[in-house]
Amino acid sequence: MRTKFLGRSGLQVSELSFGAMTFGGSHGYQHIGQVRGAEAKAVVARCVEAGINLFDTADVYSGGRSEEVLGEALRGLRDEVLVATKVRWAVAGNAGPNDQGLSRHHIVRSVEASLRRLGTDHIDLYQVHGWDGRTPWEETLRALDDLVRAGKVRYLGASNLAAWQLTRALGISELHRLERFVGHQIQYNLVSREAEWDLLPMAEESGVGITCWSPLAGGLLTGHQPPGQTPPAGTRRAVGYFEPHDTNRAFDTVSVLRKIADNRGVTPAQVAIRWLLEQPGVSSVILGARDLAQLADNLAATTWSLDDTERADLDLVSYSPPPYPHWHQMSTNAARVESPGGLDN
């Protein structure tokens, strides 16, 4: 499996990484997965065997249980891999006013709890899980910088930020010579391409690596969910997650996925993952397999490539009209537009 540098950092991550949101299965996350014990260890071992070196989780997944299960599954393998986790939201059972957000207080308490649950002395990539409009970036970034200097965290990342929020954070890091975010974990897939207009160009310009969550749009891009019907039980869409903005376009995209998959003798899921792997600026695509069979199919996406026609068909069917100001720039300055979401210098 190939590795790519995570943004402008010297850290190399596998092109596929594993998301442990499926680990634990408690505190409302049963619908996502209940992998634990020997099954979790087998999944992790298979990932490492395939060349995956980045394992991603968060303190809120299953109320901390995901971190515990991942830590247990990585025993004996910890030195071979990178572990990423996140901070921002309140972990189940903690309801105090300071049990969420990106304050120094919450960050310091949270990282210590994550280290205990993961059974490790450091976190390779510590990510803010979302925006906190009440805490100044200066406070958040200074606290994170202190954790890097203390050796408890090695690299910093963000998740689910708007382009202006991430840009401001990077500017403050540069101004005050603080550790900067080297990665941004975002939703990006064939039916959620909004990131192409601002987040991806901004990340490329700023040297921030992109990792993608929900590459299969909550299971929609597996091709198992027929249009016009209630999403199958056990899928994330069944509980209201990841509903596409344009359902018609989404299912048109699934039809093209199926056609390409049938012609190649692969699954629609592989085609969707392959498309993401070939997008510029993407450092790693995060898999969320529930079992070894699902994992094996997803891993196979690294063994082949889309041809020009297949890629063009997918781009066309999944493309959505540009938001303002991009449509205005494209229509009034067409000679200078390089590609959707990007402007020529």
TrEMBL record:
InterPro entries: AKR, AKR_Detox_Biosynth, NAD(P)_OxRdtase_dom_sf, NADP_OxRdtase_dom. SUPFAM superfamilies: NAD(P)-linked oxidoreductase. Residues 15-315 form the NADP-dependent oxidoreductase domain. The keyword Secreted does not apply. The keyword Oxidoreductase applies. Keywords: Oxidoreductase. This is Oxidoreductase. It comes from Actinokineospora diospyrosa.
